[in-house]
């Protein structure tokens, strides 16, 4: 249902922003298994809050078109995708060798509908990228996406298919440079690894570092070859609070936007960095977490918001509801409306929860050292990308032709819209519009040429969109 999705002015011309929201009603039915911390049910809880706060009526709401095999294979290996498609709980005992090979089993279990789940969440992220590419919205949201640990040939950290990499590859068809920012408590290793040797994608991850999954993300990991200095890692310790977090986030991201000048931004909003998360150890409030979304939104660059981790599911729903309001430029009431999952949010029944009094182990000195080191790294790519600046080729106006798909335009188009339930259309809005203007920084006039990486291929637009040049698992990191 397309109802406008208007929010704050998107620059001096006063054009309203449009927000696209991707949601499949079936996504909450998937079940990783008893005792597993990843619960897709949190997406249904989030959607219920959005409906009863009246936010859905301010967005274009789309049911994602499931990603096909060939979509997933733009990054993932064919045999891995074939395995995900074929394995079932009943047949997995006959495929023990492949289970081990593809790291499927404990953290990443085989469950009913596994492949459909992957197709759904990946389809939402790629669909959001396509909407942004064609100027059909300013911000696209897929809270079921953001599964940043999946690798080319293996599952990892509850993630099977890396929808983020697939979405970035889609954005690269239209944009010279794409920025990826990760505020999940875990390092965004799968995305960083995928783009470790290219200067067309910068990855910035803020994460717990130390004896903590996945164990990567040292500040000294900066990218390789053409990608040197295009990976930024912000290693943090337990208990970081809003003030400390933003003392790093805002100056670093501000400098990244100035130096890298991306045409589009992907923000992974993993909610396990919130205070009180079942698997986390940070102390961010929902407003502090949402401030990152607000800051990214202020640059007026096409923005894809994705989910990720988050294991205290009532707080995940709270967070992503609040951040949807931030995307729309709308202030959401703290008092929660009654809805089908209302009992999850007692005893206070409020949207916001207070951070705890846990110790912040991130000293001011440590934070200053991290900030100074990363700003110094960014100063070394002042003339990025490392090619002579000239006018960029014009963007293509239509989706690329798909020889396997007769209705190529329709596949990711408006026909995939999901109607909002009739009874939800009439729910009164519980939001107030934001009245302050955005902190505009308009990198509309992007410049630069596409530098082809060795061993890569191009599509018919001439833009390098192949994942081949970014997958260098044998490279020794500096």
Description:
With 478 residues, the protein is an alpha/beta fold. The protein contains 13 helices and 10 strands. It has an 8-stranded parallel beta sheet with strand order 2-1-3-8-7-4-5-6, with helices on both faces. The protein has a two-stranded antiparallel ribbon with strand order 9-10. α5 (114-133) runs parallel beside α6 (163-171), α8 (242-260) runs parallel beside α9 (286-297) and α8 packs parallel to α11. It starts with 18 loop residues before the first strand and ends in a 45-residue tail after the last strand. Residues 1-15 and 386-478 have low confidence and may be disordered. One of its GO terms (cellular component) is histone deacetylase complex. Its cofactor is Zn(2+). It catalyses: N(6)-acetyl-L-lysyl-[histone] + H2O = L-lysyl-[histone] + acetate.
Q: Give the strand order of the largest sheet, numbering strands 1, 2, ... along the chain.
A: 2-1-3-8-7-4-5-6
Helix share bin: 25-40%
Order of helices and strands: EHEHHHHEHEHEEHEHEHEHHHE
Largest pleated sheet: 8 strands, parallel
| Rg estimate, integer Å | 21 Å
Q: Mean pLDDT across all residues, rounded?
A: 83
Report the sheet-strand fraction: 5-15%
Distance between the termini: 49 Å
Uncertain stretches: 1-15, 386-478
Specify the number of helices: 13
Shape: globular
Keywords: Chromatin regulator, Hydrolase, Metal-binding, Nucleus, Repressor, Transcription, Transcription regulation
Pfam families: Hist_deacetyl (PF00850)
EC number: 3.5.1.98
Active site: 149 (proton acceptor)
């Amino acid at each position: 249902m397309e109802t406008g999705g208007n929010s704050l002015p998107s620059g001096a011309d006063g054009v309203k922003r449009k927000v696209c929201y991707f949601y499949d009603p079936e996504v909450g039915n998937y079940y990783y298994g008893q005792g597993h911390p990843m619960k897709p049910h949190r997406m249904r809880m989030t959607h219920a809050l959005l409906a009863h706060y009246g936010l859905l009526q301010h967005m274009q709401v789309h049911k994602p078109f499931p990603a096909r095999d060939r979509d997933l294979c733009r990054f993932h290996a064919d045999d891995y995708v074939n395995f995900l498609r074929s394995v079932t709980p009943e047949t997995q005992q006959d495929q023990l060798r492949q289970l081990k090979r593809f790291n499927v089993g404990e953290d990443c279990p085989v469950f009913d509908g596994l492949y459909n789940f992957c197709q759904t969440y990946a389809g939402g992220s790629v669909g959001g990228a396509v909407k942004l590419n064609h100027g059909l919205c300013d911000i696209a949201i897929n809270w079921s996406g953001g599964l940043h640990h999946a690798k080319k040939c293996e599952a990892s950290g509850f993630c099977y298919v890396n929808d983020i990499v697939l979405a970035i590859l889609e954005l690269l068809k239209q944009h010279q440079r794409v920025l990826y920012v990760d505020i999940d408590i875990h390092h965004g290793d799968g995305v960083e690894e995928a783009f470790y040797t290219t200067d067309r994608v910068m990855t910035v991850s803020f994460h717990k570092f130390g004896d903590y999954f996945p164990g990567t993300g040292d500040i000294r990991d900066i990218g390789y070859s053409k990608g040197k200095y295009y990976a930024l890692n912000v290693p943090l310790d337990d208990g970081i609070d809003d003030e400390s977090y933003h003392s790093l986030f805002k100056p670093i991201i501000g400098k990244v936007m100035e130096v890298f000048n991306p045409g589009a931004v992907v923000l992974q909003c993993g909610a396990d960095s919130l205070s009180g998360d079942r698997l986390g150890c940070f102390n961010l409030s929902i407003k502090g977490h949402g401030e990152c979304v607000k800051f990214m939104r202020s640059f007026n660059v096409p923005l894809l918001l994705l989910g990720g981790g988050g294991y205290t599911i009532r707080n995940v729903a709270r967070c992503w509801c609040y951040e949807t309001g931030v995307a729309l430029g709308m202030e959401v009431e703290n008092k929660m409306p009654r809805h089908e999952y209302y009992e999850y949010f007692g005893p206070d029944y409020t949207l916001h929860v207070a951070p705890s009094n846990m110790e912040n182990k991130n000293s001011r000195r440590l934070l200053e050292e991290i900030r100074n080191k990363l700003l110094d790294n960014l100063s070394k790519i002042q003339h990025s990308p490392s090619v002579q600046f000239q006018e960029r080729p014009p963007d293509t106006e239509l989706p690329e032709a798909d020889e396997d798909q007769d209705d190529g335009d329709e596949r990711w188009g408006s026909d995939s819209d999901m109607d909002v339930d009739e009874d939800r259309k009439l729910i009164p809005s519980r939001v107030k519009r934001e009245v302050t203007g955005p902190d505009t920084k308009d990198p509309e006039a992007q410049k630069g040429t596409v530098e082809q990486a060795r061993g890569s291929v191009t599509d018919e637009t001439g833009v390098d969109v192949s994942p081949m040049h970014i997958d260098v698992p044998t490279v020794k990191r500096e």
